[in-house]
Amino acid sequence: MPTVAPLDLEGHVVATHFLGEVPLFASAAGTIHRLDGGEKVTEAHEGLLTCIRDPYSATLLTGGEDGKVLRIAHEGSVTQLAEAPRKWINVVAGGPQGAVAYAHGRTSFVRLSDGTTREFSEERTVEGVAFAPKGLRIAVARYNGVTLHWVGTNGAPVDLDWKGAHTGVTFSPDGRFLVTTMQENALHGWKLDGKPGDARHMRMTGYPAKVKSLSWSVKGKWLASSGAPAAIVWPFSAKDGPMGKAPLELGTRANIMVTQVAFHPAEEVLAIGFVDGMILGVRIADGKEALLRRPGKGAITGLSWSATGKLLAFSSEAGDCGVIDISA
Protein backbone atom coordinates (compact mmCIF):
# COMPACT_ATOMS: atom_id res chain seq x y z
CA MET A 1 0.00 0.00 0.00
CA PRO A 2 1.34 3.51 -0.81
CA THR A 3 2.64 5.65 2.05
CA VAL A 4 0.38 8.36 3.51
CA ALA A 5 1.72 11.56 5.11
CA PRO A 6 -1.16 12.79 7.33
CA LEU A 7 -2.12 16.42 7.99
CA ASP A 8 -4.73 17.00 10.71
CA LEU A 9 -6.53 20.35 10.47
CA GLU A 10 -9.33 21.88 12.53
CA GLY A 11 -12.83 21.37 11.14
CA HIS A 12 -14.14 21.04 7.60
CA VAL A 13 -11.60 21.26 4.78
CA VAL A 14 -13.32 22.36 1.57
CA ALA A 15 -10.72 21.34 -1.02
CA THR A 16 -7.13 20.42 -1.77
CA HIS A 17 -5.05 21.27 -4.83
CA PHE A 18 -1.48 20.88 -5.98
CA LEU A 19 0.37 23.85 -7.42
CA GLY A 20 3.27 22.01 -9.06
CA GLU A 21 4.51 19.68 -6.35
CA VAL A 22 3.19 21.78 -3.43
CA PRO A 23 -0.14 20.63 -1.91
CA LEU A 24 -2.50 23.26 -0.48
CA PHE A 25 -5.55 22.66 1.71
CA ALA A 26 -8.42 25.18 2.01
CA SER A 27 -10.41 25.16 5.25
CA ALA A 28 -13.99 26.37 5.62
CA ALA A 29 -12.72 28.73 8.33
CA GLY A 30 -10.82 30.63 5.62
CA THR A 31 -7.22 29.50 6.07
CA ILE A 32 -5.03 28.00 3.33
CA HIS A 33 -2.49 25.43 4.58
CA ARG A 34 0.42 24.47 2.35
CA LEU A 35 3.02 21.78 2.82
CA ASP A 36 6.24 23.32 1.53
CA GLY A 37 9.16 22.42 3.77
CA GLY A 38 6.71 22.22 6.70
CA GLU A 39 3.16 23.45 7.18
CA LYS A 40 2.60 27.14 6.36
CA VAL A 41 -0.69 28.99 6.83
CA THR A 42 -2.23 31.87 4.86
CA GLU A 43 -5.22 33.76 6.26
CA ALA A 44 -7.49 34.22 3.24
CA HIS A 45 -11.21 34.62 4.03
CA GLU A 46 -13.63 35.14 6.86
CA GLY A 47 -15.39 31.92 5.88
CA LEU A 48 -14.28 30.17 2.68
CA LEU A 49 -16.94 28.78 0.33
CA THR A 50 -15.04 27.62 -2.74
CA CYS A 51 -11.44 26.95 -3.78
CA ILE A 52 -10.36 25.82 -7.25
CA ARG A 53 -7.09 25.51 -9.11
CA ASP A 54 -6.84 27.98 -11.99
CA PRO A 55 -6.16 25.72 -15.02
CA TYR A 56 -4.29 28.56 -16.75
CA SER A 57 -1.86 29.54 -13.98
CA ALA A 58 -0.15 27.97 -11.00
CA THR A 59 -2.55 29.65 -8.55
CA LEU A 60 -5.70 28.99 -6.55
CA LEU A 61 -8.91 31.00 -6.93
CA THR A 62 -11.14 31.33 -3.88
CA GLY A 63 -14.48 32.88 -2.91
CA GLY A 64 -15.83 33.49 0.54
CA GLU A 65 -18.59 34.62 2.88
CA ASP A 66 -16.75 37.98 3.05
CA GLY A 67 -17.63 38.68 -0.61
CA LYS A 68 -13.99 38.51 -1.72
CA VAL A 69 -12.47 36.76 -4.73
CA LEU A 70 -8.78 35.98 -4.18
CA ARG A 71 -5.87 34.58 -6.17
CA ILE A 72 -3.40 32.64 -4.02
CA ALA A 73 0.05 31.70 -5.33
CA HIS A 74 2.01 28.57 -4.42
CA GLU A 75 4.18 30.49 -1.93
CA GLY A 76 1.04 31.80 -0.17
CA SER A 77 0.84 35.37 -1.47
CA VAL A 78 -2.72 36.71 -1.81
CA THR A 79 -4.09 39.04 -4.50
CA GLN A 80 -7.64 40.39 -4.13
CA LEU A 81 -9.40 40.32 -7.51
CA ALA A 82 -12.86 41.50 -6.50
CA GLU A 83 -15.04 42.31 -3.53
CA ALA A 84 -18.83 42.33 -3.25
CA PRO A 85 -19.72 43.45 0.29
CA ARG A 86 -22.48 41.46 2.00
CA LYS A 87 -22.51 38.87 -0.80
CA TRP A 88 -21.43 35.24 -0.61
CA ILE A 89 -19.10 34.15 -3.44
CA ASN A 90 -19.40 30.40 -3.96
CA VAL A 91 -18.86 30.33 -7.74
CA VAL A 92 -15.42 31.05 -9.29
CA ALA A 93 -13.68 29.93 -12.50
CA GLY A 94 -10.30 30.55 -14.11
CA GLY A 95 -9.99 31.38 -17.80
CA PRO A 96 -7.41 32.15 -20.48
CA GLN A 97 -5.37 35.37 -20.57
CA GLY A 98 -5.68 35.87 -16.82
CA ALA A 99 -9.49 36.11 -16.88
CA VAL A 100 -11.45 35.13 -13.76
CA ALA A 101 -15.21 34.59 -13.49
CA TYR A 102 -17.30 34.77 -10.35
CA ALA A 103 -20.98 35.19 -9.55
CA HIS A 104 -23.50 36.23 -6.94
CA GLY A 105 -27.26 36.42 -7.25
CA ARG A 106 -28.39 36.56 -10.86
CA THR A 107 -25.18 38.08 -12.22
CA SER A 108 -21.90 36.59 -13.36
CA PHE A 109 -18.79 38.72 -13.72
CA VAL A 110 -15.63 38.23 -15.76
CA ARG A 111 -12.59 40.18 -14.60
CA LEU A 112 -9.96 40.52 -17.31
CA SER A 113 -6.21 40.72 -16.68
CA ASP A 114 -6.22 44.52 -17.06
CA GLY A 115 -8.75 44.80 -14.23
CA THR A 116 -11.80 45.62 -16.37
CA THR A 117 -14.93 43.65 -15.54
CA ARG A 118 -17.85 42.56 -17.71
CA GLU A 119 -21.25 41.67 -16.25
CA PHE A 120 -23.76 39.12 -17.56
CA SER A 121 -27.27 39.01 -16.11
CA GLU A 122 -29.56 35.98 -15.97
CA GLU A 123 -33.24 35.64 -15.14
CA ARG A 124 -32.46 33.19 -12.34
CA THR A 125 -29.67 32.71 -9.80
CA VAL A 126 -26.27 31.73 -11.21
CA GLU A 127 -25.24 28.31 -9.82
CA GLY A 128 -22.06 27.60 -11.80
CA VAL A 129 -19.65 29.13 -14.32
CA ALA A 130 -17.03 27.57 -16.62
CA PHE A 131 -14.72 28.90 -19.32
CA ALA A 132 -14.69 27.22 -22.73
CA PRO A 133 -11.30 25.67 -23.59
CA LYS A 134 -11.05 27.77 -26.75
CA GLY A 135 -11.91 31.44 -27.07
CA LEU A 136 -12.95 33.78 -24.26
CA ARG A 137 -16.41 32.33 -23.67
CA ILE A 138 -18.27 31.33 -20.50
CA ALA A 139 -21.08 28.93 -19.73
CA VAL A 140 -23.42 29.99 -16.91
CA ALA A 141 -25.51 27.30 -15.18
CA ARG A 142 -28.92 28.43 -13.92
CA TYR A 143 -32.46 27.20 -13.42
CA ASN A 144 -33.77 25.58 -16.63
CA GLY A 145 -30.44 25.39 -18.42
CA VAL A 146 -27.20 27.13 -19.39
CA THR A 147 -26.37 30.43 -21.11
CA LEU A 148 -23.24 30.84 -23.27
CA HIS A 149 -21.70 34.31 -23.40
CA TRP A 150 -18.79 35.65 -25.46
CA VAL A 151 -16.74 37.82 -23.12
CA GLY A 152 -14.76 39.91 -25.60
CA THR A 153 -17.54 40.74 -28.05
CA ASN A 154 -21.16 41.81 -27.95
CA GLY A 155 -22.34 38.63 -29.68
CA ALA A 156 -25.80 37.41 -28.73
CA PRO A 157 -25.88 34.87 -25.89
CA VAL A 158 -26.87 31.28 -26.69
CA ASP A 159 -29.43 29.60 -24.44
CA LEU A 160 -29.27 25.85 -23.88
CA ASP A 161 -32.53 25.00 -22.17
CA TRP A 162 -33.47 21.95 -20.11
CA LYS A 163 -36.04 22.04 -17.33
CA GLY A 164 -34.75 21.78 -13.78
CA ALA A 165 -32.06 23.32 -11.59
CA HIS A 166 -28.53 23.11 -13.02
CA THR A 167 -26.04 23.45 -10.17
CA GLY A 168 -22.65 23.22 -11.90
CA VAL A 169 -21.16 23.19 -15.40
CA THR A 170 -18.08 21.85 -17.22
CA PHE A 171 -16.78 21.81 -20.79
CA SER A 172 -15.06 18.74 -22.21
CA PRO A 173 -11.33 19.42 -22.81
CA ASP A 174 -11.91 19.63 -26.59
CA GLY A 175 -14.93 21.92 -26.19
CA ARG A 176 -17.30 19.58 -28.06
CA PHE A 177 -19.52 18.83 -25.08
CA LEU A 178 -21.01 20.74 -22.16
CA VAL A 179 -22.22 18.89 -19.06
CA THR A 180 -24.13 20.14 -16.01
CA THR A 181 -24.78 18.68 -12.59
CA MET A 182 -28.43 18.95 -11.55
CA GLN A 183 -30.41 19.38 -8.36
CA GLU A 184 -32.08 16.10 -9.23
CA ASN A 185 -29.84 13.03 -9.21
CA ALA A 186 -28.64 13.41 -12.81
CA LEU A 187 -26.25 15.00 -15.27
CA HIS A 188 -27.36 16.75 -18.43
CA GLY A 189 -25.26 17.36 -21.49
CA TRP A 190 -25.23 19.12 -24.85
CA LYS A 191 -23.19 18.34 -27.94
CA LEU A 192 -21.91 21.71 -29.12
CA ASP A 193 -20.01 20.97 -32.33
CA GLY A 194 -23.01 21.05 -34.67
CA LYS A 195 -24.54 24.13 -36.25
CA PRO A 196 -25.39 27.06 -33.93
CA GLY A 197 -28.65 26.35 -32.15
CA ASP A 198 -28.34 22.66 -33.04
CA ALA A 199 -26.98 21.44 -29.68
CA ARG A 200 -28.08 17.85 -29.03
CA HIS A 201 -29.18 16.73 -25.58
CA MET A 202 -27.67 13.98 -23.43
CA ARG A 203 -29.38 12.71 -20.30
CA MET A 204 -27.25 10.84 -17.76
CA THR A 205 -29.59 9.58 -15.05
CA GLY A 206 -29.97 6.79 -12.50
CA TYR A 207 -27.81 8.22 -9.71
CA PRO A 208 -28.98 7.50 -6.15
CA ALA A 209 -27.61 10.87 -4.92
CA LYS A 210 -26.67 14.31 -6.25
CA VAL A 211 -23.49 14.49 -8.32
CA LYS A 212 -21.04 16.89 -6.66
CA SER A 213 -17.71 15.88 -8.20
CA LEU A 214 -16.74 15.55 -11.87
CA SER A 215 -13.37 14.83 -13.50
CA TRP A 216 -12.35 14.55 -17.17
CA SER A 217 -9.64 12.09 -18.18
CA VAL A 218 -6.45 13.57 -19.62
CA LYS A 219 -7.61 13.50 -23.25
CA GLY A 220 -11.32 13.90 -22.50
CA LYS A 221 -12.30 10.36 -23.46
CA TRP A 222 -14.01 9.79 -20.08
CA LEU A 223 -16.01 11.84 -17.57
CA ALA A 224 -16.01 10.44 -14.03
CA SER A 225 -18.70 11.38 -11.51
CA SER A 226 -19.64 10.89 -7.86
CA GLY A 227 -23.18 10.35 -6.55
CA ALA A 228 -23.31 6.53 -6.40
CA PRO A 229 -21.66 3.66 -4.49
CA ALA A 230 -19.20 3.46 -7.43
CA ALA A 231 -17.55 6.04 -9.66
CA ILE A 232 -19.82 6.41 -12.70
CA VAL A 233 -17.59 6.99 -15.74
CA TRP A 234 -19.20 8.05 -19.03
CA PRO A 235 -17.53 7.49 -22.44
CA PHE A 236 -17.02 10.63 -24.53
CA SER A 237 -14.67 9.41 -27.29
CA ALA A 238 -17.43 8.66 -29.85
CA LYS A 239 -18.91 11.34 -32.11
CA ASP A 240 -22.06 11.59 -29.99
CA GLY A 241 -20.36 11.10 -26.62
CA PRO A 242 -22.27 8.85 -24.20
CA MET A 243 -25.55 8.85 -26.14
CA GLY A 244 -26.83 5.27 -26.21
CA LYS A 245 -23.87 3.94 -24.23
CA ALA A 246 -23.69 2.57 -20.69
CA PRO A 247 -21.16 4.03 -18.24
CA LEU A 248 -18.39 2.14 -16.47
CA GLU A 249 -18.91 1.57 -12.74
CA LEU A 250 -15.54 1.58 -10.97
CA GLY A 251 -14.61 0.94 -7.35
CA THR A 252 -18.04 -0.40 -6.38
CA ARG A 253 -18.67 -0.63 -2.62
CA ALA A 254 -22.06 -1.73 -1.29
CA ASN A 255 -24.05 1.27 -0.02
CA ILE A 256 -20.91 3.43 0.54
CA MET A 257 -21.15 6.54 -1.60
CA VAL A 258 -18.43 8.08 -3.73
CA THR A 259 -17.92 11.76 -2.82
CA GLN A 260 -14.90 12.75 -4.96
CA VAL A 261 -13.27 11.66 -8.22
CA ALA A 262 -10.00 12.81 -9.81
CA PHE A 263 -8.31 11.53 -12.96
CA HIS A 264 -4.52 11.16 -13.07
CA PRO A 265 -2.83 13.94 -15.12
CA ALA A 266 -1.18 11.57 -17.62
CA GLU A 267 -2.78 8.12 -17.40
CA GLU A 268 -6.31 6.73 -17.48
CA VAL A 269 -6.26 6.05 -13.74
CA LEU A 270 -8.99 7.38 -11.46
CA ALA A 271 -8.70 8.27 -7.76
CA ILE A 272 -12.01 7.69 -5.95
CA GLY A 273 -12.82 9.10 -2.51
CA PHE A 274 -15.70 7.78 -0.40
CA VAL A 275 -18.01 9.07 2.31
CA ASP A 276 -16.16 6.98 4.92
CA GLY A 277 -12.77 8.49 4.02
CA MET A 278 -11.46 5.54 2.02
CA ILE A 279 -9.60 6.20 -1.27
CA LEU A 280 -9.16 3.77 -4.16
CA GLY A 281 -7.15 4.04 -7.35
CA VAL A 282 -8.70 2.27 -10.35
CA ARG A 283 -7.28 1.69 -13.83
CA ILE A 284 -9.82 2.28 -16.62
CA ALA A 285 -8.36 -0.36 -18.97
CA ASP A 286 -9.11 -3.36 -16.75
CA GLY A 287 -10.84 -2.03 -13.62
CA LYS A 288 -7.89 -3.10 -11.44
CA GLU A 289 -8.14 -1.51 -7.98
CA ALA A 290 -5.48 -0.36 -5.52
CA LEU A 291 -6.27 0.69 -1.94
CA LEU A 292 -4.65 4.11 -1.46
CA ARG A 293 -6.09 4.97 1.96
CA ARG A 294 -8.13 3.11 4.53
CA PRO A 295 -11.34 4.70 5.90
CA GLY A 296 -10.82 7.81 8.04
CA LYS A 297 -12.83 10.19 10.22
CA GLY A 298 -14.90 11.96 7.55
CA ALA A 299 -16.03 12.07 3.93
CA ILE A 300 -13.44 12.93 1.29
CA THR A 301 -14.06 16.52 0.10
CA GLY A 302 -11.13 16.93 -2.30
CA LEU A 303 -8.62 14.93 -4.33
CA SER A 304 -5.73 16.40 -6.32
CA TRP A 305 -2.79 14.91 -8.22
CA SER A 306 0.63 16.54 -8.35
CA ALA A 307 1.92 17.64 -11.76
CA THR A 308 4.01 14.46 -12.07
CA GLY A 309 1.15 12.22 -10.93
CA LYS A 310 3.31 10.64 -8.22
CA LEU A 311 1.51 12.31 -5.30
CA LEU A 312 -2.21 12.47 -4.46
CA ALA A 313 -3.49 14.96 -1.88
CA PHE A 314 -6.83 14.49 -0.12
CA SER A 315 -9.03 16.59 2.16
CA SER A 316 -11.96 15.63 4.37
CA GLU A 317 -14.92 17.21 6.11
CA ALA A 318 -13.45 16.13 9.46
CA GLY A 319 -10.06 17.76 8.79
CA ASP A 320 -8.06 14.52 8.49
CA CYS A 321 -6.11 15.31 5.32
CA GLY A 322 -2.86 14.12 3.81
CA VAL A 323 -0.66 13.28 0.85
CA ILE A 324 -0.32 9.80 -0.63
CA ASP A 325 2.96 8.84 -2.34
CA ILE A 326 1.86 6.58 -5.21
CA SER A 327 5.43 5.79 -6.20
CA ALA A 328 6.35 4.43 -2.75
From TrEMBL:
Q: Which Gene3D superfamilies match?
A: YVTN repeat-like/Quinoprotein amine dehydrogenase
User: Which SUPFAM superfamilies does the record match to this protein?
Assistant: Quinoprotein alcohol dehydrogenase-like
The superkingdom of the source organism is: Bacteria
Which InterPro entries does the annotation name? Quinoprotein_ADH-like_sf (IPR011047), WD40 (IPR011659), WD40/YVTN_repeat-like_dom_sf (IPR015943)
For this protein, the record's Pfam families field holds: PD40 (PF07676)
The record, for PANTHER family, names: TRANSCRIPTION INITIATION FACTOR TFIID, TRANSCRIPTION INITIATION FACTOR TFIID SUBUNIT 5
Q: What is this protein called?
A: WD40 repeat domain-containing protein
